[in-house]
Design brief:
The complex is a heterodimer of chains A (about 220) and B (about 200). With about 220 residues, chain A is an alpha+beta fold. Helix content of chain A is about 15%, strand content about 25%. Chain A is built from two helices and ten strands. In chain A, the strands form two sheets. Chain A has a six-stranded mixed β-sheet, with no helix packed on it. A three-stranded mixed β-sheet of chain A has the order 6-3-9, with no helix packed on it. With about 200 residues, chain B is α/β, with parallel strands linked by helices. Chain B contains seven helices and nine strands. In chain B, helix 5 links the parallel strand 7 and strand 8. Classes of the chains: A alpha+beta (about 220), B alpha/beta (about 200).
């Protein structure tokens, strides 16, 4: 019996097992890879390349223009101003859209995007919502951009965060019109920063109903 | 018999999960080039739901992920040293979870786009936060043995050093701004909240 497996059959079985082990190990390694993975229905993943990063001077800004910049004298002299740059992209391809016109509703300023999808960085007010001034002042201002581009749905971006003392940036995604589409601007509300939401919730918390409880380390 | 046994041993060696003891240490595990971000569905009213159904997993360049996190966790108007401390915390948090992926509902991912991990919104870069990320790009903050660990953080309270967060070994985001306003550097801020750690250069970055 002790020689029952020292036969060509046992060598073949051993070789097949090793080969199977190698194959299984190789496929396991590939599935666990963290490198960019092609999107497949089975894996339900998407691999995306980086979008243009916001900069005051960015790549090819040819065509970017300030069409109308309102004078500061139109606004209260106590109103702080900062720089804002808007990037406009195609929401499906994520490619920059040149020649889009961006209007800031609060100032009526109008700007055009260049080849890289960016407007010039322009002066814009830091307007905190006056509704909350007696409650808890917002941590950033908010502005509204209405963006127009031929062959695309108009896009209205509310709540663009305006940070005092630094340049702010926002990206507007636009969607191509399809024949038969009705006139329907795309509406988006930029979320208010979570740090202010936590402050607002803590402001009115009571022992009678603490909700999720006060901000704490644990 | 010996051939079969040898084959089984080799197969077992190859199949069993095996990692060298140093697999998750700085210098011995590569800095991630990408990270898998699970995108969660809003509810039927369009409101965010941190336990919403996972719609898909987005594999992003790791730095692009950081650029979409930092301005949504820290305020872009905060002091540069606060933002640099935040950049390192965001990086180490993401790196740790990249090394410890999870599988939920047949989706395998490293982080999701909600506060379950770190608040992420794509294409929300800000100049000030990008600068902080670039300034600290090659740096990691790790224990002396070099383990890649999660640097956790919470909001904290404005205008306070937030000592209770130091005791919990979590950075207070408001505390980082407090200390930056007092003239502390980002390393001093990190040292205040995370004790027994050291800054190390990430090889190859």
């Amino acid at each position: 019996m002790k020689h029952a497996f020292s036969s060509p059959l046992s060598v073949a079985l051993g070789s097949v097992t090793v080969a199977a082990g190698l194959l299984i190990a190789a496929s396991t390694a590939m599935a666990g890879s963290h490198s960019s993975v092609p999107a497949t229905a089975e894996m339900r993943t998407m691999t995306q390349s980086a979008a243009p990063a916001p900069k005051s001077t960015q790549g090819n800004s040819e065509g970017a223009a300030v069409i109308y910049q309102p004078s500061r004298s139109k606004f209260s002299k106590d109103l702080p101003f900062a720089k804002l740059q808007v990037t406009v992209i195609d929401g499906r391809t994520r490619q920059p859209l040149s020649g889009a016109e961006v209007v800031i509703a609060e100032t009526e300023g109008r700007y055009r995007t260049g080849a890289d999808g960016n407007t010039p960085a322009f002066d814009a007010p830091v307007i905190r919502n006056p509704r909350f001034q007696t409650t808890i002042s917002e941590l950033h201002g908010q502005l509204t951009a209405i963006v127009y581009k031929d062959s695309y749905h108009d896009s209205i971006h509310f709540g663009i965060r305006m940070h005092p003392g630094t340049e702010s940036h926002t990206t507007v995604w636009m969607y191509k019109l399809i024949p038969g589409d009705r006139i329907e601007p795309v509406e988006y509300h930029v979320p208010i920063h979570r740090l202010w939401l936590i402050q607002l919730a803590d402001r009115y918390r009571s022992p009678s109903q603490p909700g999720e409880g006060p901000e704490r380390p644990d | 018999m010996k051939s079969l046994f040898a084959g089984l041993l080799v197969a077992a060696f190859l199949l069993l999960p095996w990692q060298p003891a140093h697999a998750e240490k700085i210098g011995q595990t590569p800095f991630p080039s990408t990270i898998r971000v699970a995108i969660r569905e809003n509810n039927a009213s369009g409101e965010p739901d941190s336990r919403g159904r996972i719609v898909y997993v987005l594999t992003l360049n790791f730095e692009e992920y950081m650029r979409g996190v930092l301005p949504n966790e820290w305020l872009a108007s905060w002091k540069p040293e606060s933002l640099k401390a935040g950049a390192i915390a965001v990086k180490m948090f993401g790196w740790y979870h990249h090394l410890h992926p999870v599988t939920i509902d047949n989706f395998t991912f490293d982080v999701d786009d909600t506060v379950n991990f770190q608040a992420f919104r794509r294409y929300t870069d800000q100049l000030a936060t990008n600068r902080a990320i670039i300034a600290t790009r090659s740096l990691a903050y790790v224990p002396p043995n070099g383990d890649i660990v999660e640097l956790n953080y919470r909001a904290g309270y404005a205008n306070s050093p937030n000592w209770q967060y130091r005791n919990a070994q979590k950075m207070a985001q408001w505390g980082s701004q407090y200390w930056a306003e007092k003239g502390r550097t980002y390393l001093q801020i990190l040292e205040f909240y995370y004790q027994n750690r050291t800054v190390r250069t990430i090889p190859g970055v």
